[in-house]
Amino acid sequence: MRAPDTELPIVLSGVTVKAGAVTILDGVTQTIAAGPPTVLIGPNGAGKTTLLRVIMGLVAPDAGSVAWGTHKDPARVRRAIVFQRPVMLRRSAAANIAYALGAAGVPRAQHEERIAEMLALVGLSELVSRPARKLSGGEQQRLALARALARDPSVLLLDETTASLDPAATKGIEDLVRAIAARGVKVVMSTHDLGQARRLGGDVVLMHRGRVIEHGPAAAFFAQPRTEQARTFITGELLV
Question: What domains does the chain contain, in order, with CATH numbers?
């Protein structure tokens, strides 16, 4: 029997993305393996969001390639993404998840059970009928996570999902990220919060000007960074 297809590791080889004369990603070569969350850090304009969009398949590289484990067809990779400001449909919390289930081809007979499961996972069971756009910022991010997880991804991409949240809401999202990772979902997330990178990261990728500057286990990265750029960034200095 043939072994089942796997989505990991994600291997980026020489990935370059340009916007006119501007190079956003500059020959990024990186392997993202199974395990605890991979956290992308770096200053504004480093290329973190674009890298996530390339992995998601929303942006095609101008050069280079992205390989997904043993998958031959990238379109069949089980992946989902949550942005910093997710768009909520003008529907209830339950209906937002139902929309994602329908788009993923999940049979309608399974929707009720899956919706209940996802809302329970993110702690929104009591808000099942609440209009999504009337939820608080933290609740909307929880719903966005539930909506993404409804697609049963093997890889979940998070782009600055706590950037606009207060500390309590941020902690709630971080707890969810840990729970999601514990379920075997590979989380790849970007953040400006170095404390969050320390708390959640299994490994850390530092980016600057579209390039990967340093990559390694989070504990070693923060304790003994190998590059001058990493030491500068960790101490709060500007990278130039």
Answer: 1-78+153-240 (3.40.50.300), 86-152 (no CATH)
